[in-house]
# Entry
Amino acid sequence: MSDHYATLGVSRDATPEEIKKAYRKLARQLHPDVAGPEAEDRFKEVSQAYDVLSDQGKRAAYDRGGDQLPGFAGNGQGFSFTDIMDAFFGGQGGPERGPRSRRRRGQDALIRVQVDLRDAVFGTEREIAVDTAVGCPTCGGEGAQPGTGTRRCDVCNGRGQIEQVQRSFLGNVMTTRPCTTCQGFGTVIAQPCVQCSGEGRVRSRRNLTIRVPAGVDTGTRIQLAGEGEVGAGNGPAGDLYVEIVVNEHRQLVRQGDDLHATVVLPMTAAALGTTVHLDTLDGDQPLDIEPGTQPGQTRTLRGLGVTHLRGTGRGDLIVHVEVQVPRGLDDEQRDLLGRLAALRGEERPDGRLENHGGGLFGKLRDAFSGRA
# Structure
């Protein structure tokens, strides 16, 4: 009988981790696909040694003078294919060994909520209806009819996995797969719950009150931890994400954290100056129009925009002035405007072109010259 400890190059008091590390190193070096067919016998010897020393019961029997796997390749015994994969890929045995839990974390859920611009600016609270999976109230998430419980699977004896031995050029290779009878759980539900059909959860609608923070915009997502789908077997719930959709406002347009509005003034008001009252989200706000205000000019009302979502303060309200030229003048009005034009020397404007560096033509010029 060969010395398995010497084969792996470890001492007789080596820890399981030292044995596994030594086997991985040798398996990488001696695998026939790497070292060639001439290393096959040595590879089998190393695999047999690891199979014995990695199992606590087999190692104890070997230390007492017995070998649990005589005639490795030809006596119906074999080595675990999972251990070989461990050696080459550094895993912890591939798929989880033993029965798996019926409890699983639930999936995250996503719903969309529409809010008005006012609520997006100042924040609000909303009650929403959420249709998700919740723990079954009949079986308490166990999946079995109350009073019945589960029983150990007779096929895998509660291990959750089935072992199979297959012959290969390396010898007998042992593989494992989940038990199809219990689906890898190790237990079988003899009498599934009639309400959840053994799933441990059911669909239900519930109401939640959420806080919409000030400053949200379309696309902003609010995360509510643990308010998503309850997992199978009454497992922990996932998270609920609330995506905000901000409705358009009739008079205000949002750009970032600033709000934009347009005020239409008669030509006379723009020329003489006036005070207009704006119906803003903060209530009535007076706006002074200076004499000689030109079309397209803007006035800024500080701090009347959108609340900064991740900070303090608010954006601005920017008011764009549009000057309305009168139409349909009667004789008296035409006479008055004619007299005004005469007083200002504007009866026959020359229509000369001026470069103000701005306006539509200025923007076009900058665009074609590459300065935009």
